[in-house]
């Protein structure tokens, strides 16, 4: 099963949901840029620019509802949370991948994306499919700061870095993809150590407004439902329990870091319960289908084929776009909810 997950998992994990905001926030002069670190839920195309098999987002049907219906490496039918944060904050339309060689100075000034599909807090997780580990993403951010200083000068660059919003969304693959998650009873503590080190290094580089997503309810992803959920294809409790355990530790650690760095605003974002509510009450959000992804052979994923020759025509009815990831509709609800809950904390 691990090999099956590894093959199918040239993807990554999903995201939660809730309400809606009609107009973008006016953050002119308050939040000048957004920077994102993490896995496939937020990777807007970095994996396109180095050798790796983790490029499922370039297959036909991906990007079905994106600009021009083009696959860009985004693992969804449209925009990802990375894009929606900058859109709803009124900064720009999309958050480009940092490794895109066509980026211009104006793209860098307002924020870029360092996330990489199939990555995790643990560098060994990222090594499984040769993608950008969290430490490597941090190295790229250091490189970015140097470029930014060359564009706007050191003083302005440091101002942008300290006032920007940072989003971290990873850890999903550490639990569902890395064999150590099952073999090592203390692996949640190992993950936490990697996460804490990363957040402290971000702080040392000047980041102050940091939103950290917990791991989602992994066991409710269609892949896990259809392989280990029994005849009823229920959520897999063992995976959800691991996610819940890690999230509890992460939330406590973030509180501790806020006490250690009182000038920082580190916010724990509850990814887990958002998705559980979406799965348990889909009609509340206008959904009809939870157990299968829209982008799957025949509308089902029982064969665990990570391709999508024909996407369903009614993608708005589906919670999930594919085996793991939500549709843009779901991601938009998620980001709206996050901003409603935490925006004032970030700017206070």
Automatic annotation (TrEMBL):
<dbReference type="InterPro" id="IPR050592">
    <property type="entry name" value="GDSL_lipolytic_enzyme"/>
</dbReference>
<dbReference type="GO" id="GO:0006508">
    <property type="term" value="P:proteolysis"/>
</dbReference>
<dbReference type="GO" id="GO:0008233">
    <property type="term" value="F:peptidase activity"/>
</dbReference>
<comment type="similarity">
    <text>Belongs to the 'GDSL' lipolytic enzyme family.</text>
</comment>
<keyword id="KW-0378">Hydrolase</keyword>
<dbReference type="InterPro" id="IPR001087">
    <property type="entry name" value="GDSL"/>
</dbReference>
<keyword id="KW-0732">Signal</keyword>
<dbReference type="InterPro" id="IPR035669">
    <property type="entry name" value="SGNH_plant_lipase-like"/>
</dbReference>
<dbReference type="Pfam" id="PF00657">
    <property type="entry name" value="Lipase_GDSL"/>
</dbReference>
<keyword id="KW-0645">Protease</keyword>
<protein>
    <submittedName>
        <fullName>ATP-dependent Clp protease proteolytic subunit 5</fullName>
    </submittedName>
</protein>
<feature type="signal peptide">
    <location>
        <begin position="1"/>
        <end position="22"/>
    </location>
</feature>
<dbReference type="InterPro" id="IPR036514">
    <property type="entry name" value="SGNH_hydro_sf"/>
</dbReference>
<dbReference type="InterPro" id="IPR008265">
    <property type="entry name" value="Lipase_GDSL_AS"/>
</dbReference>
